[in-house]
Amino acid sequence: MQRALSFDHNPPLMAPMRFFLSVPLFATLAALLLLWQGDAALATRWGPSTLALTHLLTLGSLSAAIVGALIQMLPVVAGISLPNAGQLARVVHGLLCGGTLLLAAAFLGQWPLLFPPAMLLLLAALLSFLGICTVALWQQHSSGAAATVAAIRLSLGALGITVVLGALLACAFAWPGHLPLRVLQLTDLHAMWGLLGWVGLIVIGVAYQVIPMFQVTELYPKPLTRMLGTALFLLLLVWSVSTGFLHDEAGRPHAAPAWPVLAAYLCFAGVTLYLLARRKRPKADPTTLFWRAAMVSLIGCGVLWLLPQDPLAKPLAIGLLFIVGFAYSTVNGMLYKIVPFLVWYHLQEVRVHGVTVPGVNQVIPQGRATVQFWLHALALILLLGAAWWPDALARVAAIALAASALGLLFNLFTAIRLYRRLRPLPAGTSTC
């Protein structure tokens, strides 16, 4: 069973939209940074430019997209209202963007003094949002949204762990040598909870609702929706604890706890691809292409994990496949469903004034969205190759990534411009 959408507590259009517009903007910044730094940004996962690039994508693009999606989805899908959604969105968005830019600058310039203010802004943004969502999620919700709400709760728990670990790392960077912290181990845990917990669990929870709804597929199997999210969260806890006790002969954390996590994600990817292959609409739209690319990328992460150890290229390639291939592809695909629908829905009230409202598929023409998908696919392939051949491919991949991000930005801006044109506001009013 799936819950029917409810728009009784639908937030203002610009509440989620300001976050969605940040997705291509920060992806463009990441592409420009890669274009500037070239192979130095992909030489090692520990490089200053690599860390700046990573956080522009994970905080500026992915986390912004997730926060915007939750502001929109919790009231509509689960019937859970967020108080003062418009004001909440403005404050969290400003803090998140400011903190992300300061953090990227701190990494890139290796300026310890920038880490404390960056972390204060990010803590204020993410912990305030986390607190409001936690209180809101205590509300009663429809049983049809139970699996999605459960995954969101677990994802928010992973966000809390990620933020704590990130704050400890920021302290270590701000005051090097003054805190007895195992920075390399904390960094791995921070990345694990941020990507496999916060980002991964929210994608899984959203997929339970939107794949059957927007892709017209069968529902996910009930045993999967009941068990997968909880199992993944518990497995991440076991993996985290084991890093302090299980080590191989070289002293590195043992890889054994990663295998069940890998198997769980591969199971999700396989089931999703199976559902997409049996969808009731045979012609694939751009969102379908993005979801397929995301699931193939997730499987690619597992394949790379099985390859012989490569201390430089392999970790970078897995990170690129997960962040750009899996998570960012999913975000792109979802934006092409969420944004046109929201614009169409918010324009319905102008019908009473005799204004013709375009259909959902006309808000962002599918042809333009498909072109942007192929630019994204090209960028992903080039980025993956750049993990092994950064000298030859890093800047070419940056150009492709920038072209894809700017294409997405143009398409989203076109939708907003359509909304502004068909629904002019009286002087002194605001949709924000």
From TrEMBL:
Transmembrane keyword on record: yes
Signal peptide stretch: none
Keywords assigned by UniProt, alphabetized: Membrane, Transmembrane, Transmembrane helix
TM regions (residue ranges): 56-80, 92-113, 119-138, 150-175, 195-216, 228-246, 258-277, 289-307, 313-331, 373-390, 396-416
Keyword Membrane part of the UniProt annotation: yes
Listed name of the protein: Uncharacterized protein
